[in-house]
Each structure stands twice: as C-alpha cells, then as structure tokens.
C-alpha cells in the first residue's frame, strides 16, 4: 500500500510542479520553485530514500519513476529559465529609446606628427633653394658610416657616437651598424652621381633626411633615435661663403627675414674647416631668455667637405669643392614649440600629439 503511495506522490509532484512553474516569472521565483520540487526534501528524494525498504518487485518501478520525474522537472526548469532570460532581454531592448536630438559623437581628425610637419617645412624651404631629397639607408657598414668619412678604425672621434652594431662577428673592421648620423649618405650619393659620368661628375645639391641611432642614456636632450637632415653641395668653385649664404638664407626662410646667424669654429672629421651654426633666438629676439641663455640657438654643424671624403665619393678635390651641413629637425621643433623633452616625440602620447 505504501509502495503505491510513493508512485502516486511522484506523479502528483510532477503535475503540481509543472503547474506551478507556469506562474514563475522571475529568477528569484525560479530559485524558490527549484528548492521546492528539486531540493533536499521532496517527493523525489523520499522515493530514492525508500528504495531499500521496498520489495524486489517494486524497487525498479519506483526508481525508474523517480528518475523520470526528476529529469522531466529539470528539463522544464531549464526551459523556463531560458524563457525568463529572453523576456528580460526583450524588455530591456524595448525600454531603450533612440533620441534623435542628441548631439553626435565628435570625430577627431588625424593629423601629422610634429616631426613630420617640421620635415615637410624643411623640404619645402630646401626645395625653394634648389636642393633635392636623397634617401639613404638606415643600416650601414662601418666603412660608410665611419671610414669613408675620415673616421678610420680606432679614431677617437668615434667615441662621440656610441654605435648599435647589427652584426659584428666575422666582419672584422667593417661590421654592420645602425647609422649614427645621416653623413654616410654623402658618400653614397656622391658615388651614385659620379658613376653617371666618372670623367666629369655632375654638380650635386642634395638634402638627406632620416633616422639616426645611437646607444645613449636617454634624457630630456638625448634619444636613442632621432632625425637629421644632412645637406651636401658639390661642384666647381664652391666656397665657404656659399655655405654661409645658404644657411643664413635657410634661417631667414624658416625664422623670419631679420634673423641673424653666427658661425663658430668647430671640428668634424669629414669637413675642413668645420663650424657650428647658430641663429639669433627667435623666442626673445636675441636679448637672452631661459631657452637660449645668451641670445643664440645652436641649430647644427657644417663645413667644407674634407678632400678625402670628396675623393672617396669619386670627386677630384683638385677640381671640385663642396660644403655639407647637418640639422636636427626635432631640435628646431623643440625650440619653436617650447617642447622641453625630446622623449615626447616617440612616446605616442595623444596628449602631446594633439597639440600640433
Ligand atoms: Zn632667447
């Protein structure tokens, strides 16, 4: 008799559970329903617990019935849970409103990097003065980076340019390096032009822009990577006066018609004589300020191309002469915009880049 009751109770629990589930409409109610019909103290658990006391004939019947009811209730629970989630999502979508009066999200236009802007301005000015842009390689041999520019192996001036070596190994005194300056392009460009007519090499007037690399401790004035613009003019009868006129004209075109320039004697292995090139401070007009100190700003180095370098480039120094100079576009941009740390240029920080 008790055994009949167990089966009946299971059928009742199933029917009542399914009926109750119809009115369950929230996650909380679903949890309560689950505790009531699939929890610790239900018709199903009681049926399983009673199995040991049942006759061998009834035991499988009750066990199977309990399993069937449990599976049916669990399936109904899963289905109900899914439909509650779906209607919650639908309600949330329905409550969203499209407000066509809201202002649009602003689109920020891209812009050129301050260094690119500076370079393009320099290309324009040099273009007006008759210089063409010549691109030389960033990975160089020691021969081009140093030896052909009058820095023989072991030359003390090499210590001024701490070098990244790409490949040393078997190459002895001619390892592969990251160029430490744009000057190796002087010899590459001279050789290229001289090859077009070795007996009478053509006159050249070029600027050679590009990245240079030095193994340096970085600080506000030093980066391991920086731009240079090299200039070179080679021909017959070129003198130091042409160099001074070219750079003074450059300064006027960049900084204004009244700006003054100054040349101070210096030393570079690949030019002779050599000079540093200053312009009157365009921030204070030469009176002296926190940036310039004494009223002058250092812009670059220059000089007459050393006869050895001319010869290495295929130009006979008895017949040809030339001048060369090197400028730092980032240095000019720093002075012009009051940028006090060179490391800002390659940090890709939008707060910096959006100011230009
Ligand atoms: Zn100043």
Strand order of the largest sheet: 1-5-6-10-9-8-7
CATH fold assignment of the largest domain: BirA Bifunctional Protein, domain 2
Helix-strand pattern: HHHHHEEHEEHEEHEEEHEHH
Low-confidence stretches: none
Bound molecules: zinc ion
What kind of sheet is the major sheet? 7 strands, mixed
CATH superfamily of the largest domain: Bira Bifunctional Protein, Domain 2
Structural class: alpha+beta
Name of the top-level CATH class of the largest domain: Alpha Beta
Q: Architecture of the largest domain, CATH level 2?
A: 2-Layer Sandwich
The whole-number mean of residue pLDDT values reads 90
Estimated radius of gyration: 41 Å
| First-residue to last-residue Cα separation | 92 Å
Shape: elongated
Number of strands: 10
Oligomer status: single chain
Beta-strand content: 15-25%
Contiguous helical run count: 11
Q: Domains counted in the coordinates: how many?
A: 2
Secondary structure: helix percent: 40-55%
């Amino acid at each position: 008799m008790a055994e009949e009751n167990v089966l009946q109770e299971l059928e009742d629990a199933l029917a009542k559970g399914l009926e109750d589930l119809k009115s369950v409409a929230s996650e909380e109610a679903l949890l309560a329903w689950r505790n009531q019909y699939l929890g610790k103290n239900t018709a199903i658990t009681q049926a399983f617990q009673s199995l040991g006391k049942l006759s061998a004939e009834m035991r499988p019947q009750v066990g199977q019935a309990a399993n069937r009811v449990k599976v049916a209730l669990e399936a109904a629970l899963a289905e109900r849970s899914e439909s509650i989630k779906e209607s919650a999502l639908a309600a949330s979508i329905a409550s969203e409103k499209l407000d066509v009066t809201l202002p649009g999200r602003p689109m920020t236009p891209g812009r050129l990097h301050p260094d690119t802007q500076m370079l393009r301005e320099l290309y324009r000015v040099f273009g007006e003065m008759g210089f063409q842009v010549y691109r030389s390689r960033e990975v160089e041999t020691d021969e081009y980076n140093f030896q052909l520019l009058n820095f023989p192996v072991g030359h003390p001036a090499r210590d001024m340019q701490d070098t990244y070596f790409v490949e040393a190994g078997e190459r002895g005194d001619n390892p592969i390096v990251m160029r430490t300056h744009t000057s190796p392009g002087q010899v590459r460009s001279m050789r290229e032009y001289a090859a077009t007519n070795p007996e009478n090499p053509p006159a050249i007037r070029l600027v050679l822009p590009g990245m240079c690399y030095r193994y340096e401790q970085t600080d506000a004035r030093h980066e391991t990577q920086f731009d240079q613009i090299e200039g070179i003019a080679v021909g017959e009868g070129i003198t130091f006066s042409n160099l001074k006129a070219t750079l003074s004209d450059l300064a006027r075109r960049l900084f204004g018609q009244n700006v003054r320039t100054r040349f101070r004697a210096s030393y570079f292995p690949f030019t002779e004589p050599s000079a540093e090139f200053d312009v009157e401070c365009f921030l204070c007009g030469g009176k002296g300020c926190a940036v310039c100190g004494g009223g002058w700003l250092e812009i670059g180095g220059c000089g007459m191309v050393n006869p050895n370098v001319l010869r290495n480039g295929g130009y006979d120094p008895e017949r040809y002469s030339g001048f060369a100079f090197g400028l730092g576009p980032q240095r000019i941009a720093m002075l012009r915009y009051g940028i006090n740390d060179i490391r800002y240029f390659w940090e890709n920080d939008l707060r910096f880049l959006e100011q230009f």
